[in-house]
Amino acid sequence: MTKITQDMSVVDLAALVCQCLADHGIEAVLTGGSVVTIYSENEYQSNDLDFISTARQKHIASAMTTLGFTQAKGRHFEHPDTNLFVEFPAPPLSIGNEPVTHTAEQQRGGNVLKLLTPTQCVMDRLVAFFHWNDSQARRQALMVARRHPIDWAQVELWSKGEGCIEKYREFRKAITPADPAATGPGD
Fold first, then answer.
1. What is the spatial distance between Cα 109 and Cα 12, in angstroms, rounded to a whole number?
2. What's the CA gap between 171 and 141, in Å, rounded?
């Protein structure tokens, strides 16, 4: 088993945790700021890993202890050899009002990480921008959108469903045509 260390990257730790959970029969998907860290190539630094899973808390806790994590409180787990902590926000896996029906996977050192796609990551960050005017979440969405092809038709349709088409248009203007991701087909 891979040893958890202070200098372990977010993506490597996330893959290790995701694989451990899968080995215990638990399906979990990485969401939130740590996905931004991965897709922004560390421009944004998250201090936690948020996994969504429908597994029972007792089952999750049992799997997490095999990696040396202890349950700090509720759905929050800590490890003595990393400053990153792992949380399990309540399901379901959704972005705003829309359920997530497919996800991406990354292979890291023999471990499989399930995570939001770049398009879903942008949408996940836009939820906070749309509904709470969170400018940091908007910047995070830009970091991802400028590095990856995004399915803008999907984001636009979702934005309409969220009742936030004007804020979507405002965000879209911030992606310049010179950005390679601005016209990509997305995921």
1. 8
2. 9
User: Are 85 and 154 contained in the same domain?
Assistant: no
Cis peptide preceding 80, ω within 30 of 0: no
The pair of structure tokens assigned to 37 is 């860290």
Locate 65 and state its tokens.
Answer: 């202890």
Euclidean distance between CA atoms 113 and 123, whole angstroms: 20
88/26 same-domain check: yes
Q: Does residue 94 sit in the same domain as residue 166?
A: no
pLDDT digits over 15-70, tens only?
999 999 999 999 999 999 999 999 999 999 999 999 999 999 999 999 999 999 99
Digit-coded pLDDT (tens) for 90-106: 999 999 999 999 999 99
* Domain assignment present for 41: yes
Domain holding 122, by residue range, is 118-175
Is-contact 151 180, C-beta < 8 A?
Answer: no
Provide the pLDDT for residue 2: 77
- Phi-psi label, residue 186: left if phi above 0, alpha if psi -120 to 50, beta otherwise: left
Judge whether 1 lies within some domain.
no
